[in-house]
Amino acid sequence: MRSPDSSATAGGAGFEFRVLGPLEVRRDGEPVPFGSPLMRALLACLVLEPNQVVSVDRLVDNMWDGEPPTTARTIIQGYISRLRRTFGADGPVIATRSPGYALQVDSDRIDAHRARSLINNAHLLPADERSRALSEALALWRGPVLSDLEGSGLHQVVGPNLDELRLLAVEERVAADLELGRHQQLVLELPALVDANPLRERLTGQLMLAGYRAGHRAQAQARYHALRERLSDELGIDPGPQLRELYERLLRDDERLMDLEPGRSAPVVQRPVPAELPPAPSGFVGRSRELSALDRMLAERASGAAGPLTVLTGTAGVGKSALALTWSHRVLSEFPDGQLYASLRGFDPERAPLAPGEALTKLLKTLGVAGDSIPVEVDDRAALYRSLLAERRMLVLLDDARDSDQVRPLLPGSSASLVLVTSRRRLDGLVVGSGARVLPLETLPTETAIELLDRTGVPGKPAAEPAAAAELAELCDGLPLALRIAAARMAANPVRRVADLVGELTDERNRLQALDIDDANTSVRRAFDISYRSLHPLCADMFRLLGLVPGHTFTVHAVAALCGTDVSSARRRLRALGLAHLVGEPEPGRYGMHDLLRVYARNLLADPSEQEHGERCAALRRLLNYYLVAADHARRFLRPARDDLDFSADATVTRPEVHDRDDALEWFDAEWPNLVAAVRAANAEGLHELCWPLVRLQFNYLMVRCPWEDWIRIYTDGADSAGERDDPGGRLLMAAGLGVAHARSGSPEEALAHYEESYRIAALLDDPSALAMTRVNMGSVLYRLERYAEAQVHCQEALDAYRLLGDRYFEAGALNNLAQVEQVNGELESALAHLREAEAMYREADDLDTLAMVLNNCGEVSMELGLAEDGRRYHHEALDVALKCGSALRQAAAYLGLGDAACRRGDREVARTRWETALAIFDAEGSPRAAEVRERLRGTGAAGV
Q1: Which of 174, 545, 757, 874 is deepest in the core (most CB within 10 A)?
Q2: How far is CA 820 from the centre of its chain?
Q3: How many angstroms separate the CA atoms of 706 and 741, rounded?
Q4: 340 and 425: one domain?
Q5: Angle between helix 688-696 and helix 708-725 axes, rounded to 10 deg
C-alpha cells in the first residue's frame, strides 16, 4: 500500500548493428536476440541516428503506423529499460536526453553508416580501388532494408532512402568498372538491374555504353527506345539530355565512346572552361547527411524532379563554405562546362557586400566577355549572363550571400546549370520566388567534432585523452570554426595537453577569448560580431537579453516576458534572429541557441555599469515572474493547489495556452529543464523571494512525473532561499517537499529527518492545519520504517485535526495513511472502509494522481480479504485513472496489482506479462518498487528478468 505524502499548502565494443536487411544485433559475432517488432523498431530508430537525440514523439510516430496507444510513452520507457539490460554495463549506452534518447555507439559498428562512409569517400579513389570500395559497401546489404519491420512507419521513412543509396552505389561502381574496361562482365550483370529499375536513366545509359563497347550496337539502341517509350507512356516525358546525347553518339559511332580514360564520359571540350572554385578545405569530416542530401538534389535535378538552386544556411562558423567547396569538388565531372565562383561578401567585416552588378561583371569576364562589351545596365548584364549560361552545364557557387536580392540577378535562366548559395540567413525569398531548396547546417556531433580535432590538430592527441577531447568538443559546441581554432592552438604547442585547453575554456568568461588566434579575421567572437552588428536594434536588444535565459530553450511567451514586450512583437523578433541563425527553432514554438552563441550573448551583457546591472536584474525578474504565473496556472489542472500561493492576478504576463490536464502535463514536460534552471538561477542570483515559491509551484507536477534527482535538487535550492529569507512558511514547505522526494525514492530515514524538521516548524507556527499536514507525512514515513504504533498515533491525530478543521482533502490523506497501518495490523475491513472514504474525497477534489494510488490500495486490501474480483476491478480503474493523469508510477502499481490478481486466479502467464510491464516502468522511473516485482517474477520462473 502506498501513502499520499503531502505538503501544505559512445562505447559498445564487440557490438555490431545491421539494418541493411532484417534488423540484427551481434555481439562478438554472435546474434543477440530481441523481442517484439515494436522493440525492434525502437532499437532501429536509435541505430539509424547514432549519437543523436531521437525525440519520444518521433519514436512514437515511427513505431506505430497509425493511432498509437495511450500507453505509448510508457511502453517506450519499458523497452528502453530492457535494451539497457540486454546491452549490459559494457555495451552501448542509451542516454536519456531531452526530449528523448540517444544511442551512444561508434557509428562504424552500424552497417548503414559504414556503407554510407565507403560510398561517400569512394570518389577520391582510383577506379580500381573505387570499384572495390563500392563493392564492399554493396556487400553490406543482406536483403531489403529492415525487412522484418515492413509496414512500420520507420520502414516507410528510411527504406526508400537506403534503397536509393544502394542504387547510387551500384551506379558508381558500374561507372568505375566502365572506366576499367569491364564492359563484357557488365553486359551480363546490367540487364537484370535495368529491368528491376526501368526508369533509372543512368543505369540504362551505362548498359547502352557497355553493350556498345561489347559490340552489341543494336541491343544498346533498343534499350534507349524501350526507355523512351516507357517514359512517354507512364510519365509523359522524354529521356534527359545526357541520355539523348549518348544515344546520338551511338548513332554516329563516336570513336570517343571507346575511350576508357577515367572520368571521361562526354566529348572533350575544345575551348577553355572556367574552373574558379577555391581549393576544398583540408581535414573535412562528417556531414554525411548533408552530402547525401546534395547528392540526391543533384540526381533529382537530372531527372527534372528538383530545381537548379540550393541554399546552404547556418550560423557563423558552422562550415557552410567548407561543405559547399568539398561537395562541389566531388561533383566536378557533372559540370563539363565549368565552375563559376563569387564571394558575395554578405557578412565581410572589412568590405561592403558585393553588389549584383559588380558580381555580374566579374562572372561575365570569366565567361569570356571583354570588358568594353559588358552592358552598362544591370538588367542587361543579367540578360547576357543568362544567355551565356543557357543550355550549359555549369556549377555556380555564390558564397556568403547577404539576402535574396543580392542573389536573384545571378541565377541562370535555364535548369542546365546548378547554383549553390551559402548564407548566414535562410533566404526565404529565394524559396518563395525561385523554388530554392534550403539545407540548414547544424553543429557537429561529438564524435565527428573529435575527428575534426584529430585531423586538423595534432593527430593522435585526442585519442590519447578521449574524455578531455569529448569535453573540448562540447565546449566548442561542435562549431567547426571553434574546433579548428582549438586544433590550431594544440598544433602550435604540441606538448600541451588537451585537458589544459579544456581548463582554459571551462570558464565562460574567457571561452571566446580562448577561441581567438593571431589572425584577426579568424575568431569565433568576430564571426558572431558580424552577424550581431547586422541586426535591427530591437532584435539586438533581444539577442543580448537571451543570454540571461537560464535554460537551453525558450518559448515566445517567456521571451516576451524577458524583454518586457507583447507576444506578437517577441515572435517577430525571434523570427528575425532565426533568419540570421542566431537562434534556432528545434521544434515548432520552441527556440534555442547554440552554447557558444549563448556565451557570446552573455558576454555582451557584461557591462559592469549600475544601469546595465539594473536592467539585467529587471529582465531576469520578469522571466522568473513569467514562470511563476505560468506554473501556477498549469499546476491547478493537475491537482488542487493546497497552499496560499496565487499568481493569477498578474495581468502583465501572457500565460501559455493551457486549458486542461493534458495541456498542463505537456507544458511542464516541455519546460521542465527550464524550470529547474530558473530555480537554480534565482537562488544563485539571490532572488530568494522568487526562488522557493517557484519550487513549490512544481509540486503537483513532481507528484505525477517523479524526477527524483531534479526534485531533490530544486527543493534543496528552495530550502536555501527560504532560509536566507527566514521565511517559516517557505522553510516548512521545502522541508516537507524534500521529505516526500526521499520517501518516494526509497530513502525513508532521510525523509524522516526532513519531515521532523517540517513538524518542528509547524509546531512553532502554532498553525493547526500545517501541524496536521506534517503529522500525515510523519505517519506515512513511520509506516515505511515499520514503526507502526507511532505511525498510527500520528495518522489518527491528523485525521481528528482535519475533521475538526473541515478540510476534506487532507482528511482523505489521513484516512489513507491510517488504512495502511490497519492493513498491516490485520484490520482489513476497517482499512477498506477508510480507503473507500478517501476515494470519494479524492474524486470530489479531482486529484487523479492520488485517486489512482488509493484505488490501487483498495485493490490490495480487497485481495487480502479474498475479494479477488473486486481487487482486479480496483486495479483496472486505477490504471485508467493513472493513464488519464499521466502518472507512470501509478500505472506501474496498477500493472503490479493486476498481475497479483491474475496470479491468484492461477493465470501465471498473464501475471508474468503484467509484472514485466510494471518492472519496465519502475526501472525506467528509478523506483525502488522494482525489487518487489523482481521477487514475484523469480517466483514464476522468470528470475533472469
Answers
A1: 874
A2: 44
A3: 8
A4: yes
A5: 140
b/e code 174-187 from CB counts within 10 Å (16+ = b): bbbbbbbebbeebb
- Rg for the chain, CA atoms, rounded: 33
CA 216 to chain centre: 53
pLDDT digits over 591-650, tens only? 988 778 888 888 888 766 656 677 888 999 999 999 999 999 999 999 888 888 999 888
CA dist 402 and 282 (Å) reads: 26
Q: How many residues does the chain have?
A: 945
Cell digits of residue 374: 559588358
Show Cβ contacts of residue 681 under 8 Å, excluding neighbours closer than 6 positions. Answer: 550, 620, 624
- Structural domain that includes position 380: 288-440
**Residue 54 domain-assigned?**
yes
CATH number, domain of 186, equals 1.25.40.10
Question: If pLDDT is split at 50, 70 and 90, which confidence band does 9 have?
Answer: very low
Is the CA virtual torsion 908, 911, 917, 922 positive or negative? negative
Q: How far is 504 from 491, CA to CA, in rounded Å? A: 16
Residues 322 and 426 in one domain: yes
Let me know whether 352 and 428 are in one domain: yes
Q: Report which DSSP code applies to 110.
A: B
Q: How many domains does the chain have?
A: 6
Q: Are residues 517 and 548 in the same domain?
A: no
CA 545 from centroid of its chain's CA atoms? 25
3-class SS at 440?
A: strand
Grouping H, G, I as helix, E, B as strand and the rest as coil, residue 249 is helix
The answer to whether the CB of 782 falls within 8 A of the CB of 791 is yes
pTM score, whole prediction: 0.60
Q: What residue type is 348 in one-letter code?
A: D
